[in-house]
Protein 1
Amino acid sequence: MKLTVLHYPDPRLRLTARPVKEVRDATRQIADDMLETMYHERGIGLAATQVGITKRILVMDVSEDKSEPLVLINPCILDKSGVIESNEGCLSVPGFYEPVRRASRIEIEYLDRSGKRVHAEWEGMHAVCAQHEIDHLDGKLFVDYLSSLKRNRIRKRIEKQRREIA
Ligand code: NI
């Protein structure tokens, strides 16, 4: 089932997601719905807070041909190093792309769709996307890394677009 993606500055995007206690069928259903929504919206990542679910679940697929879906439950970054700057966008901030600096390499641990613990070292797009999505689970958006001037300009344009649609 396709879910509705919340748009900045919806206050629900600022909530902190809670850890998943046990990976069950209901958890997998949420992850599958999130993947369906992410692919439909042509995103490379989606966090549960973006669809109004305050659980620490995120999905991503940074492959060229959209063939590598990843489900991360209770993701935790154990170590980060290096710096990479890339143009980031977000399904909750539609139409805006701005350069953001992040660690270029991360060591990460999470539970996969079956509840198995996974330990991985990622760099490049995998690392950037995971950091962006984990931020969402802590109520943080990529626009928070921009100047307040830029952030306010984006917020006003999104609010104007919404008024025009309504
Ligand atoms: Ni995002």
Note: The radius of gyration is 15 Å.
Protein 2
Amino acid sequence: MSLSIVILAAGQGTRMHSDKPKVLNLLAGKPLLTHVYETAIKIEHREIYIVYGCGGEQVQNTLESSQVSWVKQEEQLGTGHAIQQVLPDIPKSDDILILYGDVPLISEVSLTKLVEAAANTGFSLLTAYFDKPYGYGRIVRDGNDNITAIVEEKDATEEQQNICEVNAGFMVIRAEILNRSINSLNKKNKQNEYYLTDIVEIAVNDDVKVSPILAESAVEVQGINTRTQLSEAERYYQIIQAYRLMDQGVGITDPSRFDLRGELEIGHNNEIDVNVVMEGKLKLGNNNSIAPNCVIKDTIIGNNVKIFANSVIENSIIGNDCYIGPFARIRPDSVLDDHVHVGNFVEIKKSSLGKRTKANHLSYIGDTEVGSDTNVGAGVITCNYDGVNKHRTTIGDNVFVGSDVQLIAPVKIEDGSTIAAGSTITKDVDANSLAISRTEQKLVSFWERPKKK
Ligand code: UD1
Ligand code: CA
């Protein structure tokens, strides 16, 4: 028996009140659809079909995979109608695993059980028990506890609304059974839609037995229809990630204030304080600490690095034993060698700083190579932009750049030189020399301040 997988992702998601197609909303930095897809591909299958509609190409572009067959649902007339679009493409002998693109936390374990359960009856359904089942389709069972129908919230009687067993939105159905019943779907319901869920009653009336599988946990089948549900799923996901990292030995001050939107490879003895947001691909060595309110994206960090509060680092490489911040900003393509200090209100962009170099206060260093053991004083600016083009600055080893210096790029400061505070440097500076460019101090004695008229 081979398996076709269908992911339904055509809906707009009106309950989100957003211009974005619902399945493109992000959970831990990744579209809902991508979460579902990445779990789906773990299940052995012949083909994955994604039914898309709202958002069109935008939805298709989220998955780079060429292994997906995209099927367009021009008009969103319901989940049953969505399946109708793809059914002709699926071989009659296949089992079809149907997933909803707005239920992102589904586990591989539950899906595997579901697929196995369909082997005998040709129809299995994932259910869950919710204390507050509001919004979900309710599972109707007969006196022998067999599933006979799914009734949608809006169409349910008061008695049915009290049922706490819900349709999780996942089923496996043999293509041949679905083909037999699909044309019996109609829009005679409160939402005037073709409900896929009506298939259950149609199939049961046709003597098919539905094998129920209970989801591993209720959260994994949480559907995302509103922004509140999205935020709940996000926090759940983050806490799971935080616990997993803590089990690996990462110190996380407060898992409810931890956000990883990507992948983190991390060594031992690291400490992450509250409200740190980590995005993209990150790699951290050992013995690092990250203070509150830092944002770190796509960055590699060595060992024994201290990142102080409110620092922002993106797409950079940080060596060992560095101190960064508080309030530092390291922009893309920057490389800090070992023992570098970057202090408050210092911005580094597309620049490299050699071993033991320090830029501790209020500076802009852009498009610059700085050697080792160099001190960049407070308020130093590399003037890299002439209004049209960017130019590079080179600063050698063991250079002392005094405070409030402007280095007008392109310019080169050789090893061992000293730049006097307050200088504007427009020409290259030789090694071991002093460059000073400022008007000599004048003194006007008995200076009278202007008086108010
Ligand atoms: C659906 C189920 C409900 C179940 C719940 C689980 C139906 C009729 N109801 O309700 O029993 O408890 O999911 O989360 O199936 N979609 C399309 N084309 C359409 C309509 C929807 O592709 O024409 C897609 C949506 O993008 C979404 C999924 O199908 O990914 C589910 O649609 P949604 O409108 O969210 O259904 P629910 O009301 O949540
Ligand atoms: Ca839904």
Note: The pocket of uridine-diphosphate-N-acetylglucosamine (ligand 1) is lined by residues 8-11, 22-23, 51, 73, 76-79, 81-82, 100-103, 136-137, 150, 152, 166-167, 169, 195-197, 223, 225 (CB under 6 Å).
